[in-house]
Amino acid sequence: MILDEKNRKNLVFLILQFFDEEGYEESLHLLEQDSRVFFDFSYFSNAILNGNFKEADDYLLAFTRPEANTYSRKMFFDLFKRKLSEAPDRSGGSEAVNIFSKDLRRIPVLKDDSFDDLVEVIAVDDMRISEETCCVDKAPGRAKLCVDLHKLAESNPCLCDKLEFPSLNKSALLSLISLICPNCSGRNGGLKEDLICLILQFLYEAKYKNTLHKLEQETKVFFNLNYLAEVMKLGEYGKAEEYLGAFTDSKDNKYSKAMFLEIQKLICLQSTEWEVATPSGSLDNMSPKIKLHASVAMLAKKNPVLKDKLKFPSMEKSRLLTLMKQTMDWWTSSTCNSSSSLENVPVVSYLCGTPSSLRKKFNKTGPRKKVVNCKPNEINDPSQCNALVLPDYCSEERIARLTYSPSGDYILALAEDAAHNLWTWSSSQNEFCKENVFPKPRLHQPQSGKTMKNEMAASVQNSTSCFAIKGSYLFSTSGGKIAVFDLKSFEKVASFGSPTPMATYFIFIPGDLLAVGLDDGSIYIHCLSSRKVKEKLEGHDQKITCLAFSRCFNVLVSSDSDGKLCLWSTKSWVKLTSKNSTRKFCTQSNHESTSLVTHLQFDPYQIELLVVHEGWIGIYEGRTLDCRLQWVPDESDTSITSATYSSDGEIIYVGFRSGFIKIVDSRTFMTVCRINLTSFTQPSPNSIRLEVYPTVVAAHPSHPSQISAGLSNGKVIVLQPLWSGGWGEAAPLDDNGGYSNDSDHSY
Q1: Where does the sequence pass through the membrane (predicted)?
Q2: How confident is the model over 545-571, as pLDDT tens digits?
Q3: Most buried of 236, 297, 384, 427, CB within 10 angstroms?
């Protein structure tokens, strides 16, 4: 049997999927770099968006070098240029000089190189950055860099064939192993532990040392005493402490405490020259360093936390690779399936549930390998979270649209009576999420007394409210013409369009364009600078319900009231594909879900598309409109009124007509938290609305745990967890058995 490179590459993909499902994130990205079979652009771009340029540089260097080709050279150059522009100490010049001397020197200079862009970055006038400039939001520049780098990666011969992960059935590698070792699944953790040992052997034979030792730490199945001895011998005691700390804590028992103490002693002796042991080999004749090394090994063998993890199981060479090929050969012949692609890995039904070791993604600062509580956090009282109702003039008209400003310094709402409300707070107050203290926003009203109110449609029942912000101007409609307001003075500066056909949704597209969807199914692309219609897109028969644009793919997605999705190129305005997003399934209450798409939104990386229906939500591939994941809520949740991504894309906030907001994991749709808004609201004496529920939910643009909810009674409420652990962390009880009450939830 020939174990060729294709089998080895396929196995790496299966291992990467297993790491991803089990939450071994560090091992996952290290194996991507060590194996170079898959370039995770989402991970790469996330490092850039968070300002971790060294992390992004190291990841890119694992796959290509500046001298590899023109595209690689351009990618490194753009990355270093951005890093230079954000150098925080350019007044002294030390970081900028360091980037020049170390980073840019690595980029080869060719005849066609032009450093004009770089000259702009380090212009003399720009070297002295004022305090005001230092506070400018870096997110737009970083996001644009990610888009540019993605285009370069798609053309780069070193990366272009490594950007797509193959389609795999869930738990594919576990399914393979369970076919070979069915008895292992009966014992607690047996199957996964056996698989981890097989993976460790594969990594050792493939010489993926970085991944190997990181996986040992993340899984805690095997304590590699030889590795610990090796790093101590090299004097890398920080690594030794980190490795030991992944398995045990100094407070676990006396042996663990003694092991950490011995390593601390070695750190103190680090300046002492190494001494060779005498031939007798007894401890009495050894140098202090060798005695401490021997002591650490002896303590590990006695330590009850470690002693059962010191022996690695005996197995034949290349066991996992051999098993994979044998099983796939058997499966192919037994099922008369001639294809041996990864898509045909057999599925084992009991392995298709939620991974048992799904990590608690919201507690970033806590120790790794924590498991999410299967029962979601319940918030049934305002004191269990930070809740703030924004002040208004007692309007009881249902909130139709709601958004934060791009910088998060104001909230804008549009009610069904066509009136807008704008709440502001100062830029210093905008940092309140870091201090976990709410600001005191004010309802903004210009001195002129002007209000922003749209022209109403002739038929209120058929009207659709929509708005979009461009700089300091608001484009808005409530069924009539599209009005343009100055957000500072509230003055109406222009209006355009006609009541028939009626504008139902519009968004801005880079290039000074405005895409407007109408109730007759057509989409007009307006050029704002020339005030002319650039294109008319025709692909829908029903009214347009939503539009979404992806910077990453340069595509526009449109939806209509019949559930049809269309994908358009914003370069040629050609329709690339169309899909029907309706699914003929019944909810648990046996009522068929409606086909109306109520919301479209690309994730923060502009790659995946959130599609919201009244009966379910789905995650779609941005390039193909293929549905990757769907979620149907429980019967008690009634219909969905709104859903939106958090600013980091990790969670989705879902509002229901039943009065609840569910917070679900965007990758698994596991419910993390459920907020009962009915307990937050008390109807006014003159109110004729009996039910209060979230009509629209908006997420803060930079704080993932904060949302605003527009309610059916005209109120807007801002919500945020009490604790830094996020929505999945329950608030602790106070001394009286109740919840500590630091929030302002007066009405």
Answers
A1: none
A2: 999 999 878 899 999 999 999 999 999
A3: 384
